[in-house]
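Key idea: predict the complex, not the pieces.
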Amino acid sequence: MVVLTVREHALQVLVVERAKPPFFGRLALPGGFLEDGENLDEAAQRELAEETGLAAEQVHVRQFRGYGGPDRDPRGRVVSVAYVALMPDLPIPTAGGDARAARWEPVAGLLEDPAVLAFDHHRILSDAVEHARDMLSHTTLATTFCPPEFTVTQLREVYETVWGTELDPSNFHRKVTRADGFLVPAGAKAASDGGRRANLYRAGTATQLYPALLREHHSKPGARQEP
Amino acid sequence: MVVLTVREHALQVLVVERAKPPFFGRLALPGGFLEDGENLDEAAQRELAEETGLAAEQVHVRQFRGYGGPDRDPRGRVVSVAYVALMPDLPIPTAGGDARAARWEPVAGLLEDPAVLAFDHHRILSDAVEHARDMLSHTTLATTFCPPEFTVTQLREVYETVWGTELDPSNFHRKVTRADGFLVPAGAKAASDGGRRANLYRAGTATQLYPALLREHHSKPGARQEP
DNA sequence: ACAAAAGTGTTAAGATTACACCCATGG
DNA sequence: CCATGGGTGTAATCTTAACACTTTTGT
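Result:
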């Protein structure tokens, strides 16, 4: 499970400290084995609940890739099916449950050094983040990083944090408020953050986003032939 | 493996007739088990070679999803990692090799009746086709359905066949010939098909397509709130 | 000459970008 | 009053869609 959230202006991922070999004491992505009678999605939901105490409500869980290299686990051949989960910055009841010492860690730091995470989890995290970035372009899932009611600026900060870019506040505002089914006005206004109070919105019913939000400001198309 | 091609104006998929139970005599997608020392991509390449006699050249192979429901194989718990392969309409040397009687079957017919394919292969095929459709929008992979040199019209027919839509020939022509790195002029001209002879192109070096090709003519955005 | 396919031109509508500008709030 | 953030207006540029129109070929 690559459980992502936006916390303290950074994309963060849930990691556990390994309590036994191999990779004793190293950081790893949470996960586990399939149990009898479960399909893959159910197993992912169960693992998520065990690690975070959260049910599938308010969390978007999605399979994104399988990993099956022969040497990825020194104990033997293991095939893993990886899932990304996007969720708001909720308190994680690590104290209760099986208390596996799950904690948030900024993604940027983990991606810098491929040797921090155990197994091939650096690669898995990297793939998951890339997957999540694409999802924000084409779907309305950015709202799953937000609390139930949020402002347009909060939503923009999610995009800016996950993409690592800056977006024009006025154009972003128009785009998301006009996209059909993306945002529903909640009626109330947020507390002031030093200026005019912003309108609050809830996530709408749309899942696909059209037109898509562009990730880079006029990124160059494909590969060039003559630079 | 969901091996797709465009043949006789239809999207077709490589199927095998099962030679032993379960599902004896029924149609199924080709596939097999991981061997020692292989990672998932290598296993997919090997299976593709065994079924079609073709190497990874001229074929695009890509993992798209894992399947692990507890009852998907009556013999016991099997987790499958599914791959799509896109290839041109090449003759398949089924006679040689392990002669598993692989053959092309139109996708449309197979998707109509969920009970034709063995196991959960109807679902897998359906997911693969959806994945392939999305890939054509955002990447230049449509060229992998074409022979080494092809005309713009041939390429357009690939899109029309896979998407099941009709596209405006003139607008399509402009779009793909201007997309940077998509098509490279091959110099020659194709034989006439009843009219003016078309220029031949080869696939360019770009892999991503920007701007993306739109699948539906002005498809309605997301979900509507008030119909 | 004519039909059919290939490819170019044109125009209106929609999207994107950049940025000026007004609105509302707290200090 | 005024700095700060929220939100709307506007014009240049790009993209799309629809379709008229020219070019090239086989019959």
